[in-house]
Amino acid sequence: MATTTVRTIDAKAIRELFPFFTPHEEMRSLIYLDNGATTQKPRAVIERMVDFYSYHNANVHRGAYGVGAKASEMFENARERIAQFLNAKESAEIIITKGTTESINLVASTWGESLQPGDEIIISEMEHHANILPWMQLVERKGAKLIVWKITDEGKLDLQELQSLLTDKTRMVAVMHISNVLATVNPVKEICALAHKAGAKTLIDAAQSVAHMPVDVQDIDCDFFAFSGHKLYGPTGVGVLYGKREILETLPPYQRGGGMIKRVAWDQVSWAGIPSRLEAGTPPIAEVVGLHAALDFVDEIGRDKIEAYEWELTQYALERLQEIPGLKLYGPVDYRAGLLAFNVGDVHPHDIQTVLDTEDIAIRAGNHCAHPLGDRLGTPATARASLAVYNDEAHIDALIKGLHKVREVFQLD
């Protein structure tokens, strides 16, 4: 039996801040272990959005009347809060998007216009499709080349291998901060330093990291940094692209429409400065306001405390998973984030998911939007339990009990 971890956070008390975990007629009591896909929303986020729609709803940067000015103030205050959360130099370096996927597509569609035939973009073998497909489309369109940085057998990235891949043709190195399958925590600061030494730009897909550890874009020294609100206890439909001012100012518009221009005439158009030039149309205002509340929620707990707590909980889970005969865990075991992708014997991950669902345990099963990584691992799908600050040891114990039931149902004993 695994030993109890040091309790640095009261997960039960935190769950009480989330309406989702209050049993009601439409939802049974659920052990939610699919946080890599999306996190639940604290009451503070929901109430902030309800408050906006109830009392402050107006379009931003349009109306000078009282409510319109207040909406604009709330929106720009959120941008300032995001900049502070990331330790960006200024709020103008924060571009509001729909999520990580759109953030990466924005970079590929704007910065990517400067690509020339023969130029190279390096991505890793562990990337999510959101950090593969935009680059595949770009290099095909521009006659450039996509270079794949292979993972080690442990599921890590070798910096010496990156050095061998970097050439005077390398224009971009785009990697994820934490793998959504392997739970590998990549050395992004070192990756950016090597890329910059070779004259390349860098993009970090931080979808799986910002809710679980402190981040500092100036310390990492990345050129672009992307994440989604809904994996950070915030709303769906909103995300962030951070970019260094000197780079953002060189980008052409991503989309064209209201709010991103200075002047339009039939024979000439002049664009607004950043961030407006890259934010055409009405933004997701209530969602941005909700994201502000989510950042406050995370920082009230403390990102250092969250990282330490989830590390302890992950170690407890790793120890207890060893009790399941025939379980294969993917990714490194010495240092990893709180995502646990695994298979049990020859049971299909969807069947594992179904059995666990009967025990009121929610996990993810499938390819996790990472087909090339599945090919490298030799499996088309895995089951994945992913942790958040409201999970605790009792949830891990229930997962282990459920996996024993999986073995029983499929007669693996």
CATH-derived topology of the largest domain = Aspartate Aminotransferase, domain 2
Binned, the helix content reads 25-40%
- Contiguous uncertain segments of 5+ residues: 1-6
How would you classify the helix and strand content by structural class?
alpha/beta
Task: Kindly provide the name of the CATH class of the largest domain.
Answer: Alpha Beta
Task: Please state the overall shape, judged from the principal axes of the Cα atoms.
Answer: globular
Question: How many domains make up the coordinates?
Answer: 2
Mean pLDDT: 96
User: Rg, please?
Assistant: 22 Å
Strand order of the largest sheet: 2-8-7-6-5-3-4
Q: Characterize the main sheet.
A: 7 strands, mixed
Strand coverage percent:
15-25%
SSE succession: HEHHEHEHEHEHEHEEHEEHHEEHEEHEH
CATH architecture of the largest domain: 3-Layer(aba) Sandwich
The CATH homology group name of the largest domain? Type I PLP-dependent aspartate aminotransferase-like (Major domain)
Quote the distance from N terminus to C terminus. Answer: 19 Å
